[in-house]
Design a protein that fits this description.
Layout (H helix, E strand, L loop, with lengths): L2 H22 L20 E7 L5 E9 L4 E5 L4 E3 L2 E5 L4 E10 L5 E10 L8 H7 L3 E6 L7 E5 L10 E2 L4 H7 L10 E5 L4 E4 L4 E7 L11 E6 L7 E2 L5 E2 L2 E7 L3 E7 L8 E9 L2
Antiparallel strand pairs: 1-2, 2-5, 3-4, 3-6, 6-7, 8-11, 8-19, 9-10, 9-19, 11-12, 12-13, 13-14, 14-17, 15-16, 17-18, 18-19
């Protein structure tokens, strides 16, 4: 083979190799085809209640999607990203599961599925039910106690113990801190769907909690966090009226809620503020 022929073969081989490299860089989908785009009418999926031994709907549902794309499921509290998953719902009654579908080209749409829970067969964190009841729950000041607001010793007291405000003196304090709607008769509502939080003043936000965030064993049982607003009269009197958004939960049951928040830098026995609430029944 002469030199000219060798050069031709080398050039052809190099050109073929370059074409293969360029082709391998083209975007492809998993099956090598163009991205599959589906809309709501092409959705294939379901939300199915797991039955109890006597045929009732438990609080566990199976969420499945078999159409192309990826699925994200939410009950308004928890969110799971999977085309096949289970969710344990927090309350009984009719509620909605929302599925957000992302097609292979990145476009999205949502599908909703109503489900009915007859009984809570599977264990879930009871805090959701205690705060939000069967979906939404209203709380107000606990007028059965002597003092509904005030300060005391952080990690020591379980209610206002130093400077104490009874319900009869609450409106004066609320006026002083520009939150007149938070006084006597003021209410706040915890809503499970979306973990929403609102007050009679019209202020609203969201909430979350962490029942493992125990400041001191035997004193607190967890923490409540609010966003965009605080609880009723949730201000720091010795810090320019700044709003508290993090509270230790001292006690919580179906009927009462006791919260505490320390002043900045307070240690054991330092100054903290206390709130005494009861459920509106």
């Amino acid at each position: 083979m002469n030199k000219k022929m060798k050069k031709i073969i080398f050039f052809a081989t190099s050109l073929l190799l370059m074409m293969q490299i360029l082709t391998s860089c083209d975007p492809i989908t998993e099956d090598g085809a163009s991205p599959k785009v589906i809309d709501e009418s092409e959705f294939i999926g379901s939300v199915t209640s797991v039955k109890t031994t006597d045929g009732k709907n438990s609080n566990r549902v199976i969420c499945e999607m078999t159409s192309p794309g990826s699925a994200q499921w939410t009950d308004g509290v928890l969110t799971k990203s999977s085309n096949s998953t289970t969710m344990d719902l927090f309350i009984t009654g009719t509620q909605t599961i929302t599925c957000t579908v992302q097609s292979q080209d990145g476009s999205t749409f949502t599908k909703t599925f109503p489900v009915t829970v007859d009984e809570k067969t599977y264990d879930v964190d009871p805090t959701y039910g205690l705060l939000c009841g069967s979906g939404s729950k209203v709380w107000t000041w606990d007028t059965s106690v002597d003092n509904v607001w005030g300060n005391g010793g952080y990690m020591e007291n379980a209610a206002p113990s130093w400077w104490c405000v009874p319900i009869s003196g609450l409106d004066e304090q609320c006026t002083a801190y520009g939150c007149t709607s938070d006084g006597e008769g003021g209410q706040m509502t915890f809503t499970l769907n979306g973990l929403k939080f609102s007050k009679t003043s019209g202020q609203s936000g969201t909430f979350s909690f962490d029942m493992t965030a125990i400041v001191k064993s035997g004193w607190s049982i967890g923490k409540l966090y609010t966003k965009n607003t605080g609880v009723l009269l949730g201000v720091q009197p010795n810090n320019g009226g700044a709003v508290f958004t993090e509270y230790s939960i001292l006690s919580l049951d179906e009927h009462s809620l006791v919260l505490c928040a320390p002043e900045p830098g307070a240690g054991d026995g330092g100054t903290a503020w206390f709130w005494m609430f009861r459920a509106v029944e």
